[in-house]
């Protein structure tokens, strides 16, 4: 069919439009367009299915990883895809505990930092209102 535009560029983009307006191409051309679209979709579906079937073992490994970890970051996903991610429940529990400890430490550090900022702000406010010392004494 080639690189051509079928229809007006002003066509509205909703399904009901094609029923109420005249097409500027024949039913034969519409049939060819439908046939080409169907071919593209069917080929893409077949390719997708082939890729999934070819990698089914990896897909199942990633699924097991998701069941254990609930979420995977990009590094964990690549490890799971390459079947290198630990699926031992004890490792998962240990990593979750380690993550929790790290998060708690980060929160504590953030709280300490906020307290220091507040103290510095109070100190600077007090210094603003401090009277200059008298040099004559």
UniProtKB/TrEMBL annotation:
Its EC number is 3.4.24.-. One of its GO terms (molecular function) is metalloendopeptidase activity. Residues 116-137 have a biased composition (Basic and acidic residues). Residues 104-115 have a biased composition (Acidic residues). Residues 102-137 are annotated as: Disordered. InterPro entries: Peptidase_M41, Peptidase_M41-like. Keywords: Hydrolase, Metalloprotease, Protease. The keyword Hydrolase applies. The keyword Signal does not apply. It is an enzyme of class 3 (hydrolase). GO terms for biological process: proteolysis. Residues 1-79 form the Peptidase M41 domain. Pfam families: Peptidase_M41 (PF01434). This is ATP-dependent zinc metalloprotease FtsH. The lineage of its organism: unclassified sequences, metagenomes, ecological metagenomes. The gene is ftsH_79.
